[in-house]
Amino acid sequence: MKPLSYQIKRTSRASRTRIVVTAEKIEVIAPPDVSDDVLHQFVKEKWPWITATMQRLKARKVHSQSLAPKTYHHGAPVPYRGKTYPLSLAPTRLKRIKIEHTDVFKAHIPHTQWETVNSEEIRSAIIRWMKHNVKITVEQLVLQHGPKHQLFPKSITIKSQRSRWGSCGIHNDITINWLLALAPLEILEYVVVHELCHIKEKNHSKHFWSLVAQHLPNYRCAQLWLKQHGQVLMLGL
Predict the structure, then answer these.
(1) CATH of domain 130-233
(2) In sequence order, what are the beta bridge partners of 8?
(3) Which segments constitute the YgjP-like metallopeptidase domain (predicted)?
(4) pTM, two decimal places
């Protein structure tokens, strides 16, 4: 047996011990009162399944094609909300690259950078724009869904995450993965509602899913979409 390498995360939100496997890591989620010895034994029993799952995910990742263009040049296809839009470059008197989105993604490049700007600088500007846009959209979705059951987060954070789409902390701070900007809007809406519902239900019980369904009766469609396309989204831009 190969040496076991995994992370243990104890949380009061966990009603049972479970294992989360990605292509990069193994995480054991457990209630606070479960001992290390019990967790180690649990992982040993599940090790054949864990290794098979990791191998499958790694193989899938190798064969998955990122949504991102190889370079961010004029005409490059930029993914956003489940579609792709051509990138247009234009000079500007501004001192910093500015991104606008209509039926295209327009990158306004400062005159001083026009001859030297590279793909990575344009990519970084687009990512900054998407993070900002996701924050605004999440705030709008909270205002849309929050009043129904008084589900208002203490704070909203948008950041990069490689193994989850969102989270809700013990103090009701929610975090949303900015990569959801690449998915259709209804997928982002589902993740936001999912985390908002954790404000009231700190688990994945029947009561939790019933609460999600009250906001989004067809939430299972979004779950299925993420299961089918999530690995590609995680490859990022």
Answers:
(1) 3.30.2010.10
(2) 28
(3) 17-229
(4) 0.75
